[in-house]
Amino acid sequence: MHQKALYAVIFCALLAGSNGLLIKAMSSLNATAMAFLRTAVPATILFFWLLRSKESLFRGATKKMLLASSINAIRMYLYLLSFIYTSIGNAVIILYTWPIFVSILGVFFLKEKIDKKQGLLIALAFIGLIICSSGKQFSFEDTDILGMTTALFSAFGYAITVIIFKSEANNYHRNELIFFQNIVGVFIFLPFFILYYPQAESIDLAIGVFYGFLIGIVIFSLFFFGLKYLKASLASSLMYLEAVSAIILAYFVLGESLSMEMIVGGSMIITSSFLLNRYSREPMNT
């Protein structure tokens, strides 16, 4: 099961690389409309799954799960702000500090241990990500500082939700975890979607629904499955492969340049993920 969990997270990361392509394709939707579709689609689908399964949501740590959902909605808003106020290069570098936060928080709240090898490999992956983005402009103008600050808080907020959901992974089905992840965001973003809906084009709404299904259902199902059987720090570190996937897709689909920095940094990320797989064969007790 441990090996299947590893493959699930790796496949999840590779699929997640399509995130940027789908967002760019929804040209007539603003960020809040995208956020609503991103949360509403998985929440609606899983609501009917929960009705069919006859499983009561109001059991166990309901307040804790709703807290995680609220934090996720806030971090999503901060995520959007980061791309509004700073460049994509700045935002990506800061946002991908979340696996580092997960590793640190996992030590304190999940009692996980990080040995020297794993710590070095996590650092190697993060350095590789920085190298991938080193060719992008990185400035410290006022709006950039605001954008990078919101990105940092978004990364930290996401790390907190990973830790909370990890702590409850054995008490809830992964579909329940995904439902809780999205439900609060539906109500927060609904008013903005209603106001913006008349301006939206049908094709972009269709892409938005597909986006919500792919990211909200498929990708997070794979991630939560892996998270149940792997250390939070390992599952999060493997997600660095998303950066490599995004770069390759952008190169072939959008024709973006593939620089030497991207090749070197991507190689470091892939190497780190491969070695993390090799050094982390033992499954955690569940």
Task: List the defining traits of the structure above.
mainly alpha, 286 residues, disordered C terminus, globular
Describe the protein.
The chain is mainly α and 286 residues long. The chain is built from 13 helices and no strands.
Radius of gyration: 18 Å
- Which percent range fits the helix content? over 70%
N-end to C-end Cα span:
11 Å
User: SSE order in H/E notation?
Assistant: HHHHHHHHHHHHH
Name the overall outline: globular
Q: What is the assembly state of the chains in this entry?
A: single chain
User: What's the number of extended β-strand segments?
Assistant: 0
Q: What's the average pLDDT?
A: 80
| Total helical elements | 13
Structural class: mainly alpha
Brief digest:
The chain has 286 residues and is mainly α. The protein has one domain.
